Amino acid sequence: MMPTPSEPVLPSRDDPLIRAGSEVAGGPAGRRIRFGPSGAWWNPVRVLILLAVVTFALGLLQKQPCYDGGWFGQGSQYSKACYSDMPHLFTGRGFADGKVPYFDTTGDPNMPYLEYPVITGGVMFFAGTLARAFGGDTHDQQLWFVTINSLIMMACAVVVVLAVARTSGRRFWDAAMVAAAPVLALNGIINWDLVAVAIAAVGMMAWARRNVVLAGVLIGLATAAKLYPVLLLGPLFLLCLRAGRLVDFGKTTAAALAAWLVVNLPVMIFAFDGWKLFYTFSQERGPDFGSFWLILTQRGTNMSVDTVNTWVSVLLVLMAVGIAALALCARRRPRFAQLAFLIVAAFLLTNKVYSPQYVLWLLPLVVLARPRWRDVLIWQACEVIYFLGVWMYIESYAGPAGDHGKGLSQNAYHVMIAIHLLGILYIAALVVRDILRPEYDPVRRDGGDDPSGGVLEDAPDVFTLIPGDRAEFGAGPDYYSDQYDDKTYVPDVPGKVYK
């Protein structure tokens, strides 16, 4: 017995962890469940919004020690794990003085201009203008700046959750893994990354809904907020090549480039020195927090910045080639979200820095690529450990004078880095397995193709590196069976041939 195409995939039936947990509340949804009317007030959209808002609000509550002085030298923002860039950049990048990003210098000789992409800078400038209007002294304006940006980030979090729900097709309840994510609460207001994450998530939703031009526009705008969304074009190229839909890819790419230029070109023309700092700063910085490059350098490996840049580029290219080979050699075409996760994960694994908020880049991609509560929670546990570890490491040398030496040692911090890297590799290994063995893919086990695929969904292959029949999957195991487990699923449907 399988759900009809009009019925949602319910976690208490589909996910082993949720099914086991549901026993305390009467067990999984039964065979005779009736889905409520579409006009019911407590529909899935409102439930997901409420869950996201509550999660984000808990994160704001966790930052409470810093509201009382931790950000301003009256306590430790590191030992309380409530650090945020926002109040510091309000004064350090000239927003307190009304300076215009990219056009005006910050007054800091080490960072003469704002080192963020244009859309992120625009959000910061908007929030800074409101903070100066509502606030009194500088301290009050800083709090207003954080409050305004927190509301913007909360709105972005809600957008991400709804976009994941819409991209997931019948699996819209998978978005609850984003809405209830501990990393969303802990990392939501460290920086402005949720702006890019939200735009990119809506771009993936647009692609899933077969609007290839709008998807390109949004990917271009997301890249104007943070660099990583441009990586999404790589998986799209590979999948469109395999499905013979390069015209659609061309439209998406052209729209992305046009949108990026519309936002960036005016600043490039009239404030080039300020505009280029983001890109030159990324190249000139050395190994930093969260990367295995930092482990190597702190353990005595002497490498110049140019050498590290070269190795980063080489390793990323090698990983990208591996992902391309996987995409073109797999017996069944991978899902868009799977390849998107793998390329962004490769970028983060090889990058010179892993700031704690970068986990937000992966959050919607992990949920779309491997929608299993157990695996998502294991990965997030690794990231929460790293979140706590990085602040305790900084506390050991940058906290209040009396607290120096009370945080993590360098060796202990290296262990924290290794844990977060292993967490990403764990999800990546599962995704690669799902691509090579689609019968293990939670999304495809009911016979569907790729709800995030858009124009690629159910399209025949026209180009692969390994010729052969496409692996076909129809109805999977009994959807309501208590015996289902990811490890024991063996396709066995009369009349179907599994290759």
UniProtKB/TrEMBL annotation:
Keywords: Cell membrane, Membrane, Transferase, Transmembrane, Transmembrane helix. InterPro entries: GT87, UCP010361. The chain crosses the membrane at residues 41-61, 113-131, 143-165, 177-207, 213-241, 253-272, 310-329, 336-356, 376-394, 415-436. It is found in: Cell membrane. It comes from the Bacteria. Belongs to the glycosyltransferase 87 family. It comes from Yinghuangia aomiensis. This is Glycosyltransferase 87 family protein. The keyword Transferase applies. The keyword Transferase applies. It holds the Pfam family GT87. It is a multi-pass membrane protein.
